[in-house]
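=== Structure Prediction Worksheet ===
Name of assembly: unnamed complex
Input type: mixed (protein and possibly other molecules)
Chain count: two
Listed entries:
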Amino acid sequence: MEWTDEAIILSARPHGETAAVVTLLTPEHGRHAGLMPGGQGRMQSMLQPGNRVKAKWRARLTEQLGNYTLDLITTHAAAWLDTPEILSIIASACAVTEASLPERQPMPGVYAGLATLFSLRDPELWGPAYVKWEIGLLQALGYGLDLSQGAATGGADDLVYVSPRTGRAVSITAGEPYQEKLLALPAFLLGVPEWEASDIGEGLELTGHFLRTHVFVHPHSRLLIAQAGDLPQARQRLADLYIKLSENDGALAHAI
Amino acid sequence: MLPLIEAMTAAVHQVQSCSICGNLGGNDPCEICSDPLRDRTTICLVEDVADLWALERSHAFRGLYHVLGGTLSALEGVRPTDLRIDQLIDRLKEGSVKEVILALNATVEGQTTAHYVAERLAPSAVAITKLAHGLPVGGELDYLDDGTLTAALNARRKSA
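=== Predicted Assembly ===
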């Protein structure tokens, strides 16, 4: 068995003395693991989460782990080593992808979204793009949100809440009596081209709720999700980071 | 085989972790922490003992160290509480340290951890610096990977 595909590195964990078990996201073969001989040596820099590679997978039988040969196409993290928000987004996106997608099931839409997110040049766009990518991921997994019209009124105006039960948008008037129970709907998800760190934080809370209650309630990896209903640590840290950013007017307390 | 067995037995009984910095050695505090000639105003934060030894081999740093004990990792399940961050904050409270150098790996996990640690250290009034990323000594441009070249370009500085 053999295939060649473009891929994004999700993770690499040491295996034995020199090899690594690498998990990739590919458009045609989905989330796919394989053994990378020499993956703990000079290859390590290529195996950073988020990097785009050309992957060749080979095994005697389909169900075997198989071996990877990888060639680097683009490195993403290196450009953002000094930007904590973007590094956290890369780590979170890779962890959420690895923890949520079934193995070896093609998800070309999720791959395309992730590739687009990682290739953004403007750092300001990463936050909203990440939230939108998580909404796309939820949709691909069968838990799509309906933010186009109000659940109660059917109208498309004044939508500011989302029902935590149905995932449908709720207008300000219909939601007022239940506002403590409803999730906030940040305006950038409705196409408003302005946002602050607090809006990204609200977006992360919104998608985080549905990831917790629908996707990670039956986790397939106890490594990434310690308890049913938890978010991956990297995702939780990203949400915490945006809470801090919104408390400090978009700036972190440190600069290194 | 006997010398090897004896050496390993001695290592088991003698090697211990330094209660101040986390280094491994025959004494507690370790030789570095108890050396009066070391610069006590600077602490270099490293991921593990192997990184500390690498920096010691270079003879480029004469301050103190702090071994973090790993990096934040979703895959390995390493949480902030698993790292020796609180011990570092306690060391800074003593007041003699003026600078903390974050010497963590230039990986996504290493740099994510560096930013997390910097955020935790922000309330203490010490200077927080980190190692530069870029061209290795002896490195030729056409042999370097894209990531290193990108980091080197981003960290370019004025030629004197």
